[in-house]
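Moderator note: this is an archived Q&A kept for reference. The question asked for a predicted structure of one protein chain; the sequence and the answer are reproduced below.
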Amino acid sequence: MTPQAAAQNWGTRSFLREHFFEPGLSPEDAVARIKQTAEGLHDMREMLETMSWRYVMFYIRLKQAYLDQDLKTAMSTLPDNLRNDYIKVANELVDNMTDFDRYVRTPKVYESYLYYEKTLKSIDQLVAILA
């Protein structure tokens, strides 16, 4: 594999889209990355308890950038009867992560925990639909 071909598998710096080239993942890889994101969000509880707001903000924004593309790609793996439920839960997840990010930036502790729990609930429902 040439270095350029290897770079296309994980993305390279470019000014085409938000300063980074994001290669398209296969639907199975997108589902795997969504599941990995769910595990990462569950492991983030310690950062919230120690009020490491900067790290929480960085992690949320990084995952939001990937989830946008992965949610669209992963939908192609679902049968038609599950797509409406998937779209509803995916929209709820995006809304909850946006609110979570907003309250972490303020930082409002109670609201941050509240939207963290709502985000976990939404992503767990999404993983259950994808499984």
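Archived answer notes: The CA atoms of residues 51 and 109 lie 8 Å apart.
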